[in-house]
């Protein structure tokens, strides 16, 4: 039985090892991307001379300024807003080709326009397609091969990685829970020979990484396979009754201080959520009857939010959807990104994520070395027997 599991563990590791190593290293680098970008690109994210008394310009004005800084065929589809007085607002323009091969063909264009919301000045236009952390992200998501080809390779490698982890814990399980073998299962003796050291590193690191690595892989599968995400959301929803309704009994009229309704909706949101660290708007067509604004309580966490739904015709806020009021499965679904990236618990969980990602990257390397050493030993034994 154990020999069959070893065979499965070995060959799945050989097949997926390079991909798992790449995913782990890119995940490791991407963990602190929010913090590093603010430090490396201050000219994009910060306003040099902030005035706390100045109110931001209407969104429509800023959108017009951002749009005019791009080429005619490039359209802004999302805005990320930061209420902090020293931060720029980010206007995204993105278009992809789902069928294309390779990163450079997958993105038709991807631009981010950084604007001072109090003066309307465009501080910088970034070609996000070539930005370092975007390249790291796309390497993590699809190996820079484009979504059609790379996404499938990453998805199935992640699924197989779960089998590798589970088979690994069976192989790790000590025969006797005492003596030298037992100690080697939990601690690395650096005084042993190189081959033994490499083998013990693989076992011990694999054991200590197991549960968090499984969390990475399972949340990764939720991104890779929408059907899988729906299944586990529906399953956990069975443990809780219906969520608390966030539908307003009567649509709440909002003040109309501006000509365009989207400006009024944003003004209302900023005024009523002063503690929010970030707001996000997915821009819709002018003919759409609704405007949706996401309120993020924390800039670096996507799973703690309120969605505000505005009705243009009635000039009113008609519904609020809060992450706190969701059923258990739906709540886990919204926290998927935060769990996967380690941002769920702030700096502490990010450090843990960084460390375990590094450990996961080492597992294919030590595993390949074990395989090569055993292959050499088998060849030598065969040669001596003949």
TrEMBL record:
Keyword Transmembrane listed: yes
Keyword Transmembrane recorded: yes
Transmembrane annotation, as ranges: 12-32, 153-174, 205-228, 351-373
Pfam families named in the record: PepSY_TM (PF03929)
Sorted UniProt keywords: Membrane, Transmembrane, Transmembrane helix
PANTHER family named in the record: BLL7967 PROTEIN, IRON-REGULATED INNER MEMBRANE PROTEIN-RELATED
UniProt name for this protein: PepSY domain-containing protein
Organism from which the protein derives: Sphingobacterium puteale
